[in-house]
Amino acid sequence: MMRAPRGLSAEEAALWEKVAATITPIHPVRPKAKVAEAVALVPPAPPPKRVKGRVPPPLPSPSPTPGARPLEGHGLDSSWERKLARGAIAPDVTIDLHGMGLDAAHTRLNGGIAQALAMGARVMLLIAGKPRPHDEQDARGNRRGVIRAKLLDWLAHSPHASRIAA
Q1: Does 33 map to a domain?
Q2: pLDDT score, position 42
Q3: Most exposed: 18, 93, 102, 111, by fewest CB within 10 Å?
């Protein structure tokens, strides 16, 4: 249970007054502008022009298409990044490019993204195959990881690039 504050004694109040008189505020109190002067400075609006004849209604402003704006940075906030890293978000669509040739994979990627966006998918899982082995002798003569190597370029130059966040 909390006690009520006791207040200042006469001696403490006098001491506080001395201290308060010696300081200057960081942000001094500004005098408020007079409202009457501010109103007088605004010029009156010109009267609306009269138009003779039939006037067509104003055209509605075009609404921006969703996702047409470029994303700043990568477009994900830290909450989404954590959820994706932990695997807490289930993908809405999976696009599997594993085992395809370059041309087929590129076509499937663009078609899959277009279809997923049309369905309203927000999270897509993209499977591009296994990474290159760490031992370069095993990779000699193999063309492993070609799709994976091209994937970032394809996404950056895709017609859907402005809608891809990460």
Answers
A1: no
A2: 59
A3: 18
